[in-house]
Structures are given as C-alpha cells and as structure tokens.
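no rush on this but wanted to send it before i forget. theres a chain ive been looking at and ive put its sequence and its fold in token form underneath. please have a look and point out which stretches look like helix strand or loop to you. thanks a lot i owe you, the record is right below:
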Amino acid sequence: LAFNFFGFMESKMEEERKELPKIKLYSSQNERKRVEQMADFYSLISTVQHLETAYTRDAVSQTEYTIECKKLISQFKTLKAAIAQLVPDSDKFISDYNMDAKAARHRLLRVGVPATVEYDVEGSSKKDQDDQKYVFEAVQTFITTQNCLQLEMRDVDELHPRLSELMESLNKVKKLPEDHISRVKVKDWLVKLNNKPASYRLKDDELRQMSFDLQTAYDHWHRIYN
C-alpha cells in the first residue's frame, strides 16, 4: 500500500492540536470587552497604516483618502478616549506590540489630520479655485477660532475641530508660503491638541499661550492679505 504522507501529517497535526492547552484570553465579560477594545485599537492603527501606504502608492484617490482618513482619525480619538485607562500611552502600545506603523504614528499621534490637509494636496490640485474667496474664508475661520478662546472654550474635543478647519482654510490659499508663521503656529497647536485626550481642558497658561500664538498668526496673516 502506498504511504499517504499528507494524510498522515494532517492526522498528526490534528492530534497535536487536541493536546495543546486552550488559552483563555478572558474570564469575565469585562475582560472580554477590554480585549475586544484593544483588538479594535490595534486594527484601527493597522488600517490607517495601510491607508497611508495605499495613498503614497497612488492606489486611492485624494478624495477617497481624505474621507476615509478623517473617519478613521475620528474613530481613533473616540476609542482612545474610551480606553484611556487601559491604554494610557498609544505610542507605547504601538511599540509593545511591534507594530509596523510609522505612517500611522505620524497621522494619528502627531498631526491628527489627513495628509491632504497637512500638505495642501487637495487645495493646490484645484486650478480653478478663487484665491480671494479662500482668503476671506480663512479670515472668518481665524476670527471664529479666536472668539472661541475669548469665550474660554477649553476642551480639546471642541478646539481641535476648529483648528483643523482653520488649517484647511489656510491650505486653500495657494500663495501662502509653507513656512509662513500663520501656518506654523496653527499646525503647532494642532499637534499639541492632538496629543491630548479629548476630555482634556486647557489650563489658564495654556489658554493664554494659545490665544497669544493665534493672535500672532493672524497678525502676520493680515499683513499679507489686508
């Protein structure tokens, strides 16, 4: 009789699987919830990494990338806040699990906005845009953001979207230099807020510094477009 090697190996592997002890990841509903949340967190970071890779390879359009990236960043912030006690340091989480997520690290933990917003990719691709319209839009967004600070809005989840909107408005103005102080100041605070939990409230000195920096940014902006 011919020896069935593959059949023998399959039978052998099945026996070994039966002998292996079962590892329980959780012993209660609360533990199960924590494990699932960590799995979701890991999956979100991996998804952003894949999206960033696809974008750099031109495998996804700018519009599709921007929509998906904004959604993933929002989901990440929501989940990050929900598991803050379980995962207090997202950067350490990525390192501890040996995740290959350099691009996701930058997008989620440092900048907090899509690459099309960070580098003005979308704005510069629209050849028919009216620069004056976007200058006016940026002025209005500057004023709205400053008004929020004057009203002492301090919560990160309130201020970050407004700064993100301001960054987008500035990026739409094609003639504004990349290293202009208005861009730099807004981006610096966008990064700072992105590294805080959504529930964080700015302290008095932080609020004062942010107000000063945005006023400085606006003054320099106004000198160009007044």
The longest helix spans residues 29-56. Residues 124-129 have pLDDT under 50 and may be disordered.
